[in-house]
Amino acid sequence: MSIFMDIYYMNLKTAKKAFKSLMKNWLIIFTGLVYSTILFIGTLISPLFWILSRLFLLILSSAMVSNYLYLLQQIIEKDRFSLQDFKDGFLIYLRKVWTVYFIGFVALLGMDIFLRPIIVGFAGPFVYHFGLIFLMVFLLNALPETIYQKPYNGWESIKSSVDFIKVHWIEWYLPNILLIVILAFITGSALINVFDNVTSLGTITQGPFGIILYLLGQLWFSYMMIYRGFLFELLNTSSRRKRMFMRNM
Hints:
This protein is mostly helical. The protein is 82% helix and 0% strand. It has eleven helices and no strands.
């Protein structure tokens, strides 16, 4: 029973802290619009890079992920971010994010060549695709927070993210499942990738309802990511016994 009481009080504290932080840093809600616009323009000009167009878009996407994670770091550590932070953020974690993408690409390519024929032949394509989803969505779920809160390189970040889930999977997944379910209800998306920006520019073109849906999605997505950041920090800097002791003080 103590574990569930710990989860309750821990998330009650995190929820309040994340809400106050979001209200103070509400401009982060509009970063999704900025990123979507940049990506849209990047897609239009990518043919200019000819055979390197996909590489250009990958680097551009990595830079935007780096920017968003850096803004989250500023919010978690300083409870604020500035225009200068936004300007600097595109390069801060670019190498680390790029490395993670590259490792993921090589791993998926290797699995597709060597493991897919065996698994599909033995258990069918559903098992293979479910395994990929399990690896990406569950085992690596805390990878964004690991990237901007831990001083590790790309490979170490992946390993540390998996180790974190092994230790804190109950405390991490119970609130995250609720957060993602609410996000999916708002946006109509069944699966949410935490590296994406929830909704695209296409949603806004649907009229007033689309604009409201976009803003609600960005609002909840921003709250969720700040919430995850504070929760990750708390789980990494305290134990269940320490948290219980501090509550009884």
